[in-house]
TrEMBL record:
Pfam families: IF4E (PF01652). It comes from Abeliophyllum distichum. One of its GO terms (molecular function) is translation initiation factor activity. GO terms for cellular component: cytoplasm; nucleus. This is Eukaryotic translation initiation factor isoform 4E.
């Protein structure tokens, strides 16, 4: 019987291993740095302020780190009800209070199917880190929320008052997600005043 050392490695396998080695040594840099956040509000403490359970998890700026983090951790189907994952530009906190978000708002897409949320989240993450939006500077980040009623994804943007820019981002996002239903955009300013604030724009 041939010893293990004598087994020949097929050329394709050797090539893949070599590519993996090269990738390890020469990581593919992203255009900018991103941060994953996590918020678990499934066991809220009485009287705790909003944001007290929000945690910054990991920042990364290479394709390789992204895939590792996504594969190991950041899939919404792993989340309990009332928890969120966020991917935001490094330096921007996923809060209305952050100066980059303060005058902004969000497009929201809902989903009744868990697998859909995972897919739409991944498509959005790839579009963001791959800089697929023409108005990339206008984008703050994306939030995946698991809720009893309906899961949702929200794409946060910077300048809510700029309807043309927001509509262009909304249309592009629908294209990326292959969503045909209407989606709507709400201003953080409205959400601050009223829990179920009405959307201002629709695409
Ligand atoms: P939400 O983001 O409107 O929806 O936040 P959520 O968490 O899915 O809740 P649901 O009603 O759809 O089930 C709900 C509430 O959390 C808001 O009305 C605020 O009281 C608080 N909240 C949410 N965000 C994103 C912020 C924030 O950025 N800052 C502050 N101060 N409060 C927030």
């Amino acid at each position: 019987m041939a010893s293990e050392a004598a087994i020949e490695v097929p050329a394709e396998v050797a090539a893949v291993e070599e590519v993996a080695e090269v990738a390890k040594k020469q990581p593919h840099k992203l255009e900018r740095k991103w941060t994953f956040w996590y918020d678990n509000q499934s066991n809220p403490k009485q009287g705790a302020a909003w944001g007290s359970t929000l945690r910054k998890a990991y920042s990364f700026d290479t394709v390789e780190e992204f895939w590792c983090l996504y594969d190991q951790i950041f899939r919404p189907s792993k989340l309990p009800t009332n928890a969120d994952f966020h991917l935001f530009k490094a330096g921007t906190e996923p809060k209305w209070e952050d100066p980059e978000c303060a005058n902004g708002g969000k497009w929201t897409v809902t989903s009744n199917i868990k697998a859909n949320l995972d897919n739409m989240w991944l498509e959005t993450l790839m579009a963001l880190i791959g800089e697929q939006f023409d108005e990339a500077d206008e984008i703050c980040g994306v939030v995946a929320s698991v809720r009893q009623r309906q899961d949702k994804l929200s794409l946060w943007t910077k300048t809510a008052s700029n309807e043309a820019v927001q509509n262009s981002i909304g249309r592009k996002w629908k294209e990326i997600l292959d969503v045909t239903d209407k989606i709507s955009y709400s201003f953080h300013d409205d959400s601050r005043r009223e829990r179920s604030a009405k959307g201002r724009y629709t695409v």
